[in-house]
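Weekly structure sync, notes
Attendees: PL (lead), two postdocs, one rotation student
Agenda item 3: pending single-chain targets
PL asked that the sequence for the first pending target be pasted directly into the notes so everyone works from the same version. It is reproduced below exactly as submitted, 333 residues in total.
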Amino acid sequence: MMGDAFSRCHPLLNFFYFLVVMGFTMFMQHPVFLALSFVAAVSYATWLNGWRKVLRMNLLFTLPGLLITALLNPMFNHYGVTPLLYIESSGNWVTLEALVYGIVLGCVLFIIILWFSCYNQVMTSDKFIYLFGRIIPALSLILSMALRFVPHFMNQMKIIRNGQKCVGMDVSNGSLTKKIRYGLNMVSILVTWALENAIETADSMKSRGYGLRGRTAFSIYHFDKRDRKMAALMLLLTGVVLYGCSCGAAFAQYNPRILLAGFEVMGRTPAESCNAGLALLTFASFGLFAFLPLLLDVTEEAAMKRSRSHTGGDMETTYRGIYEELDRGGQML
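Predicted structure, written out during the meeting:
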């Protein structure tokens, strides 16, 4: 996305950012971490894709997955010491700890999907191949194709369906039997296109010598001064968060009792908790790290607006001076 400032940073910084923010979201399941990651993911996804697309994706796919995960976990896992409901058919208790952990897992899934929607916009296939093409050439090509799989399939399906509509063979036409046959025909066309596209891509990369020893490649990416500053800031924030987590600032336990660092749950606090100052510093550092792309985008856009306003004012002054000079010259003549 050309309008996104963070996308114009070096691919190494893009990949490192998403690796760290998604890693902390998945493995540090503290409510404060999840809340900061959720707000940052929604904000950045809205900035990249627009609020309509983000809202539609969340309502259709993410929220149902969250609810299913939150409800299934206490039905099949019965750990915990706080019973809520007894199920006579299975002879098991639904516990508070299992229910809360199911909600936490659903939230993690919800947030990770949001982050991946941002990842697909920022980490394009050429960036991924630039980073891993020399290390794991075959695997990097497969992964880049896999990451582009869903959006390419959706776009091609729209093209196929529009063509089928023109000849009256869409899934919205005819009886139920014809709709099924038309739908299977569209799927067959899509699969055939996907296989042909994969073969063409493999032949094209092979003819270019992809993966051969000593092969050079042109790259437009350069690690400039801004990237070095951004890398230093990201490493500093990551180090602070890792140190705080190692000291217990993000400790979270849901089995057999709920214990959260910084919170008193049912009169209990974890012994692994650190002091409040370090915990606040850890949470603030993670929040700043999660909002870095959005802060960079907002800062750059504000600078561009100021630059345009100054340029517009200078141009207006220049043109006014030219017109005044022309008027004076005409009066003298």
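Discussion points:
- The mean pLDDT is 81.
- The longest strand covers residues 83-87.
Action: rotation student to compare against the earlier draft before next sync.
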